[in-house]
Amino acid sequence: MDMLSIFPLLSFLLFSLILTVRIIYLRVKGIRVSPGNRRSWYLLLLYPLYSFLFFIWFYELLAMASPAISSIFPDWFTRKLWTNSILDLIGIAVVVMALFFWALTLIHFKKSLRFGLDQHTAGELITTGVFSYTRNPFFLCVNLFFSGMALLHTSFFFLIMALSALISIHFFILKEEKFLRRHYGEVYRDYSAKVRRYF
Description:
Blueprint: H1 3-28, H2 41-65, H3 75-78, H4 85-108, H5 137-152, H6 156-184, H7 186-194
Helix pairs in contact: 1-2, 1-4, 4-5, 5-6, 6-7
């Protein structure tokens, strides 16, 4: 077992731990981070799909890290398409950068971290810190993380997962922007004119 095999699992666990700690911290402070029971029909359809994809992702990371666990996919789908140490180093650097900015983003959210588009739990519009460079640092970090994983392990599985993440997150951002324009009005429009969606 080499470090490149366990790095994806360890970095994903760290990614998840950073988010979990922040959510617990906010809940202890009495801040609601999810909309509760007010969920739309499309989310009720997407939750099982994303839960299933999360399970597959996590299982494949375990299979990569442990020779005792077999992949659920054929070897050609999960095997690296090419081996390149420079690509591996770039992938590791992108993942580490994503982890660093992930933690920084969650700190800069202050008390405004929310999941779901709910005007009752929207919090304040954050435009300082990392939010003064990108309107979507949270999603940008997720995109960087998946992209770094795909660079590190260039298999069909990781490439498809990264591409799926990039596309689905982009569409969610578009939907979120409509909500933010409605909820924050001119303040969000001014912010959008000054700060780009991604970089």
